[in-house]
Amino acid sequence: MFQAGQKVLIVSCADDPRATGKTGRIVDEVAPGPLTAGRWTVDRIGIWIAPVLCHRHELRPA
């Protein structure tokens, strides 16, 4: 489980491959549900990359 504000490394990202290898911060305050298909929202990745949705297996704590 991740927590809001936690810094994570994006190992892969089907939502936006440009985010792969970058770090960002978890936005969600609760575990993701059906609205996001179980994906976590990650923000603060880069100036040209909008927040992305990533599955748990695509993220690692940084």
Task: Give structural notes.
The protein is mainly beta and 62 residues long. The chain is built from no helices and five strands. It has a five-stranded antiparallel β-sheet, with no helix packed on it. A hairpin with an 8-residue loop joins strand 3 and strand 4. The two termini are 14 Å apart. The relative contact order is 0.34.
Strand content: 25-35%
Indicate the structural class. Answer: mainly beta
Shape: globular
Strand order of the largest sheet: 4-3-2-1-5
Distance between the ends: 14 Å
The radius of gyration computed from the alpha-carbon positions, rounded to a whole number of angstroms, is 10 Å
On the 0-100 scale, what is the average pLDDT?
97
In short:
By secondary structure, this protein is an all-beta fold. Helices cover 0% and strands 29% of the residues.
Short descriptors:
62 residues; mainly beta; 5 strands; globular
Secondary structure layout plus pairing:
Elements: E1 7-10, E2 23-26, E3 40-43, E4 52-54, E5 59-61
Antiparallel strand pairs: 1-2, 1-5, 2-3, 3-4
